[in-house]
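Contributing new records

If you add data, match the layout below exactly. Sequence lines come first and carry their own label; structure lines follow with theirs. Keep one chain per record. Anything else will be rejected by the validation script.
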Amino acid sequence: MNSKQLGNLTELQCMTYLYELGYSISIPFGNADKYDLILDIKDKLYKIQIKHSSVFLDEDGEASYIKFKCTWQSHNTSGYSKQQYKENEIDFFATFYENHCYLVPWAECCNEKILRIKPPQKIIKKKGISFLEDYLAEDIISKL
């Protein structure tokens, strides 16, 4: 699959997962918005940007972490440039891995987000390490 197909598949997987949890989903018309869907939770609307994640393996060939970009590309007559999402543009990033959807608050992301499946071999500082298990969609939603 090419990158556009992988992105579309991730969107469908996240939408299906969230819908199966019992939440209403709205999809913006066209391709002009920074978010891919609106999630209605307890009568509050959340803007979700969905990103495909790449899986990175450790030296034993086991999944160690996933990573996704937290930027978007714009273009004009000068060419392409990467842009960061602003606080008012999205509330969460969503991604899909191993049959689960994960939600990461916008405020916890910069240019990319790494979600650890297992701890790194050498932990210098535990602060700043994000673990995949802490972002399971239903757990994040239950805290809203």
